[in-house]
Amino acid sequence: MDNQKKYAGNHGRKPKPDKMRHRYVFRLDDGDNARFLALFDESGKATKAEFIVSALFGREIKVIKLDKG
C-alpha cells in the first residue's frame, strides 16, 4: 500500500518549468482574417501563436498618452 501512494502521482506529462498560463482571445472579420493569414504565411513561423508573439514583442510599440486636463 505504501508503494502505491509513493508512485501514485508519477503519471502523465512532466510539468514544464515555465508554463504559459495566460490566454487572450480576439475575433476578426473576414477581411482582417484574410490579412492575418497572409501575414502569417509570409512570416514563415511554424504556428500562429508563435507569429502573434513575435509580432507583438518583436518590435517596438509606441504608446501615446493624451492629457485632457
Automatic annotation (TrEMBL):
Annotated segments matching region Disordered: 1-21
* Pfam families xref list: MobC_2
Compositionally biased, Basic residues: which spans?
Answer: 11-21
InterPro entries, per database record = MobC_2 (IPR045788)
Q: What is this protein called?
A: Uncharacterized protein
